[in-house]
Amino acid sequence: MAKSYYDILGVNYNATPEEIAAAKNKLAKKLHPDVNLRKGIDTTAQMQEVLEAYATLSDTSKRAEYDREIRG
């Protein structure tokens, strides 16, 4: 089963917009490709997942639609 956007960001379903933004920022610092390529690790795909999750969960209408989809 694919990870949900909540799983990707490491937040719960009731997370506030501030918690979602903080989680995205924390992951961006950890996974940013510019930082990791110097270490020989390609985190581009992971960073794209984080940004996609954030784009959906930070937009109230997209988040409501996403929640309806994943909860049936």
What do these coordinates show?
The structure is a single chain. The protein is an all-alpha fold and 72 residues long. It has 5 helices and no strands. The chain has helices at residues 5-9, 17-31, 33-37, 44-57, 60-71. Helix 2 (17-31) runs antiparallel to helix 4. The longest helix is centred in the middle third of the chain and has 15 residues, at 17-31. The two termini are 15 Å apart.
Structural class: mainly alpha
Quantity of strands, as a count: 0
> What count of helical segments does DSSP give?
5
Multimer state = single chain
Low-confidence stretches: none
Q: What's the gyration radius in Å?
A: 13 Å
What spatial form do the alpha-carbon principal axes imply?
elongated
| N- and C-termini, Cα separation | 15 Å
* Mean pLDDT value: 93
Largest sheet: none
Q: Write down the secondary-structure element order.
A: HHHHH
Strand content: under 5%
Helix share of residues?
A: over 70%
